[in-house]
Every structure is written in C-alpha cells, then in structure tokens.
Amino acid sequence: MEMEGGESGGKRRFGVLLCAEDSDYVRKKHGGYFGVFVRMLAEEGERWDVYRVARGEFPEEDELGLYDGFVITGSCNDAHGNDPWIHHLITLITKLNSINKKILGICFGHQILGRALGGKVTRSPTGWDIGVRTITLSSSSSLAFSSLKLPSKLSIIECHRDEIRELPAKAEVIAWSEKTGIEMFKYGDNIMGIQGHPEYTRDILLHLIDRLIQRNYIMEAFAVETKLKAALWEPDIEAWQRLCVSFLKGRL
C-alpha cells in the first residue's frame, strides 16, 4: 500500500481502490492513476492511501472505520465480470455501505457500485463512448448541489463501452446524456457514481485512445475522428473537482 503524508494523527483519511494497472505513460507523467486522483481530490492535512484491488490488495476489515471515504477508479476489466477480485470488491462495497462510508465511483467504479447495490451492468447497446461529452444534471441534483452553483450541463471525458442498464432500488439518476441514460447516480447520502472521468486530462484521453487502437478495441478511423473532436472540447475539470471534493467530504 502506498501513502501520501505519513501517519494519520487525527487527519482525515481517504482510500483509493485502484482497479486499473498504471501504464508507463501515466506513471511517468502523472504518478500513476493514484497520483491523478490525489491531485484532483486531496487537500492540506489529509492522508491518502492506495489499495491495488485489481491485484488483490484490499483494506483489512478492522481498518475500514479509520477512513472518511473511498474512491473506486476506472478499469480495463468489465464490471459485469466474475474475476475473484471483483467479487471481493462487491463484498467490500456492501460492508462500506452498511457502515455508511462515503464512496465515489468513477467509470468502472460507478458501474461496480451499481452492480453491488443490486443494479445491472451490460455492454452499451450503442457501443463505445470515447471523447468529451455533455451531460445534463437532473433538477433534483441541481437542487442538491445548489451550493456549488453548477451549470445544468457539464462536459466530461468519457472512455467506456459498458453502462449501468438498471439502477438498484433506492438509487436516483442525477445526470444523463444523449448516449447514456445513467451518467450519474446517488444512493442515499453516502454513495455517488459518475460514468465519465472527472479526473482525466486531455492528454490521458489521447494516450488511452492510442492504447485502444494497439489492442484492436477500436478502429483507427474512429480513433482519428475521436481525437479531432476531443481537441475542440474542454471538459469542465474545475466544476467536477468541486463536485467530487464536496461530495466525498460531506460539504453538500
């Protein structure tokens, strides 16, 4: 487990449940995906730990109470898959929810939260969504987030081919797009999922497009078009940062 900032000593403490393997590029340029999330979410006087759950590295059950919240990251794996670590993560989510811990799920993290709470995740019937997309916040979420003074539409980087098709009972859709019906959801006051990537910068998106071409996940012509479109749009990074920090730290 890696840490930022030594012993907690009464500091607020957060855990990143890392579901992806770092590429060399992201490791060198951003300090890995853990570094990307710490840069977006961490504030002075906090302790941030990383658990590489895709490698089977999980927090101990008696440590869970030490944390103020957890972030579940994106992944190359399918949230509807049955790898042992995915089942272990579902069990952990259930435990964290039972003790009312804050959980923020991003992309795969959003989908695995939906599955763990009783929803359904599948391949998207409309295929990959890669690039910068505008999503619409529901009127109820605009009310819930009113202190943040967010616009009703926000642009975000997307890179996924799965989606939540059915929400768990008690969950509320709080944002959607033309392509994806469940772009964001809330479950009670302690869980929120975001299908897009508020933490990504444009260079990470372009790097991922190249990796998807190399792995034959997407066609080169599609990739070229996606890169051109991405160059024209700017994701609302600052608004997403405020929203994610405020949710995770109970300021909404």
TrEMBL record:
One of its GO terms (molecular function) is peptidase activity. It holds the Pfam family GATase. The keyword RNA-binding does not apply. It is found in: Cytoplasm, Cytosol. One of its GO terms (cellular component) is cytosol. Keywords: Cytoplasm, Hydrolase. GO terms for biological process: glucosinolate metabolic process. Signal peptide: none annotated. Pathway: Secondary metabolite biosynthesis. Residues 37-201 form the Glutamine amidotransferase domain. PROSITE patterns: GATASE_TYPE_1. The keyword Cytoplasm applies. PANTHER family: GLUTAMINE AMIDOTRANSFERASE CLASS-I FAMILY PROTEIN, EXPRESSED (PTHR42695:SF13), GLUTAMINE AMIDOTRANSFERASE YLR126C-RELATED (PTHR42695). Belongs to the peptidase C26 family. This is Glutamine amidotransferase domain-containing protein. The lineage of its organism: Eukaryota, Viridiplantae, Streptophyta, Embryophyta, Tracheophyta.
